[in-house]
Specification:
Length: 331
């Protein structure tokens, strides 16, 4: 519950929101943008005092926030904090906010829609992200944080989201036409080959796969730009020390899944592939059908450079998944 960790999380979330926006992944854009905005508001409150973050109705949370953890009946991991709306209300009492509470509603409604029911109104994505940028800049100014450093490769483009998206799409199409993906400086990226943007299976050119090619080209560019901005000039030891790993989350609500550590194709760090499990029919010779438990990779996330691959087609573009003889994806 300190300002530093909340700011670091907010920066990571906002960078992912901008990257998702560039690939027209509107769900992920508002999800990460909403989380990033909430963490920024809480960073502002934590800078005043950690107690401003907690639900005042929970005494144990107040004890932790005021440095009296030895008297708390529950651990610090169970501290109850306020929500995004209340965080905005409290922050607005401390600084001159450029927007009203009602202006924040599209962002939080979209974020909650994605988080709870897996959908939101695509038509409000642009306005939701624009509000996130406006609130973020106001908070960063109050905290006397360097705004260009926080936004990294999005420092200039964030003020014109529509142009940002157009530029990203043009760059992706050029990359697919042979212009190549911009090489990022640093030893971790020396072995990158643009050939990875070509399909592993030449005859696998469905519409979904072609769409994934464009999305991956944009995501690779964004991840490289972010990696270069954050880690350029650092030694491998410094990069490993600075690499922030997300805390273990409760993933039970997503059903039966496995998480496998896989090297990121952009920066070489360890990332997670999430694979759903399912019983699939498989024919045995002369013995009818039996069932086997298959893994179907759905998602890849690199905490170091921020590369996110959101479906099996995107994983296949980078050689991290491929269709098997039975028509299933394996890796």
């Amino acid at each position: 519950m300190d300002k530093t960790s909340l700011l670091a999380s907010a920066q990571r979330q906002m960078n992912r929101a901008m990257s998702a926006w560039c690939t027209s992944d509107n769900d992920m854009a508002v999800l990460h943008g909403g989380i990033g905005t909430e963490h920024l508001l809480k960073a502002l409150l934590a800078a005043r005092h950690p107690s401003l973050l907690v639900d005042g109705r929970d005494f144990n949370s107040l004890l932790h926030a005021t440095g009296q953890s030895t008297y708390a009946a529950s651990p610090a991991t169970k501290v109850k904090t306020i929500g995004a709306v209340e965080a905005f209300k409290r922050a607005a009492n401390l600084i001159n906010m450029p927007v009203k509470e009602r202006d924040l509603d599209p962002l939080l409604t979209a974020r909650n829609g994605v988080a709870h029911v897996g959908a939101h109104d695509d038509g409000i994505t642009h306005d939701a992200l624009a509000i996130a940028v406006t609130v973020a800049d106001a908070v960063l100014t109050d905290l006397q944080e360097d705004i260009p450093s926080f936004w990294g490769p999005w420092a200039d483009a964030r003020l014109d989201l529509e142009q940002m998206q157009r530029d990203a799409q043009i760059a992706a199409e050029q990359a697919l036409k042979g212009a190549g993906v911009e090489a990022a400086d640093g030893p971790q990226l020396e072995n990158w080959e643009d050939g990875l943007l070509r399909p592993e299976v030449e005859d696998f050119r469905s519409e979904n796969f072609q769409t994934a090619q464009i999305a991956v080209a944009v995501k690779v560019r964004c991840a490289k730009k972010l990696y270069r901005f954050v880690y350029y000039g650092k030694t491998p030891e410094e990069i490993a020390k600075a690499d922030m790993v997300e805390p273990e989350a409760d993933r039970s609500e997503y059903g039966a899944c496995v998480y496998r550590s896989v090297k990121c194709p952009v920066c070489g760090a360890d990332g997670d592939v999430a694979a759903s499990l399912g019983n699939q029919p498989k024919r045995r010779a002369k013995k009818g059908r039996s069932r086997w438990r298959g893994e179907f990779p759905d998602y890849f996330d690199c905490y170091t450079c921020g590369l996110e691959l959101d479906n099996r087609y995107e994983l296949e573009v980078l050689g991290m998944a491929q269709p098997s003889r039975d028509g299933w994806f394996v890796y």
